[in-house]
Amino acid sequence: MDLFSDESDNEMYEIGVFDSEGIVDTENRRLYNRINYRSEFSDSEFTYRFRLNKTSVDELLLKITPSLKVISSRNNGISPLHQLLLTLRFYALGTMLLSVADFIGVSKASASRIVHHVSRAIAGLYPQYVKTLSNTQNAFHEIAGFPRILGAIDCTHVPIQSPDSNIGEEYRNRKGIFSMNVQGVCNADLLFMNVVARWPGSAHDATIFNNSRLKMQCEEGLFGNRWLIGDSAYPCTSYLLTPLLNPTSVAENHYNEAHIKTRNTIERCFGVWKRRFPILSLKIRVAMQTTQAIIIATSVLHNICRLNNIRDVVPEVAMPQESGDITYAEGIGQQNHSVRQQLINNYFSV
């Protein structure tokens, strides 16, 4: 996935005579009045609108400023702070670019470019914040007694606009809407450890995993004797455990109960992620590369919020009701794998 292309994410707004200082018309330059929201709002009001508190915004700003195109407010240029706040506001509302442009005080064309560049800059922090952790098994074991769990894996759909008339149908998922199918792995504290955001909505969960670097790492034994835990969309292997569809013994029922409770962490993680950043539940109306950058960037921001204990924020917009993203392929995860059977016999038998 190329998150760092220089292509514009909204070419129709690049045709006119626009720059980062505001809208230029045929007679006069239009300048905007930009409010310093950092000093204008209290910390709680600031967090409600931008999803991060002031301290986290300051720390994030230091890390992404070198990657931004405009870093000076000279000649009414858009400051790095305003660029970051505009992008965070866009994530928090998931609305039209014009709304966040007016909120910050820039043109729509500038807002489009800012979301593109800032999303790429935040996504560039992925290796620093989204990584496999070494001490996950104890916290998972406390949930339902399931031993040696590396992380919970699943996929979720992020609605998008149809990307292209030629390939659009590839992005239509089983519910008939255009989306990207995003793979995520989290720990028991709802921290993302892996996010893959490059597959169309029609892709099956198992296909995404089978073509991921994560699977290669599992097969190479980089995570020791720890397991991933996933639903029946995945095949049961020596490193990925799935539930039994037809348990026949008490031990197998205990295994399934513990499996469901432990696997539920990834469903909760997706829920917290999408609730904090409603753009992930509403239709993202930007180009594909920017969409991918937004998904990765919000996963980075999610981990920042969790690491800094930033409280969950009630969405300002109505969130669509989801019936769940679990896709079941009959029989795919039901092989009586020896590792799973040994686990049932050793840990869940009465």
Write the layout of secondary structure elements.
Layout: E1 18-19, E2 22-24, E3 29-30, H1 37-40, H2 43-50, H3 54-64, H4 80-93, H5 97-104, H6 108-123, H7 126-129, H8 137-144, E4 149-159, E5 179-186, E6 192-200, H9 205-210, H10 213-219, E7 227-229, E8 240-241, H11 250-276, H12 288-307, H13 338-347
Parallel strand pairs: 4-7, 7-8
Antiparallel strand pairs: 1-2, 2-3, 4-5, 5-6
Quick recap:
This protein has 350 residues and is of the alpha/beta class. Helices cover 41% and strands 11% of the residues. The strands form two sheets. A five-stranded mixed beta sheet has the order 6-5-4-7-8. A three-stranded antiparallel beta sheet has the order 1-2-3, with helices on one face.
Give a verbal description of the structure.
- Residues 153-303 form the DDE Tnp4 domain.
- GO terms for molecular function: hydrolase activity; metal ion binding; nuclease activity.
- Helix content is 41%, strand content 11%.
- With 350 residues, it is an alpha/beta fold.
- Helix 4 (80-93) packs across helix 6 (108-123) and helix 11 crosses helix 13.
- The termini are far apart.
- The relative contact order is 0.15.
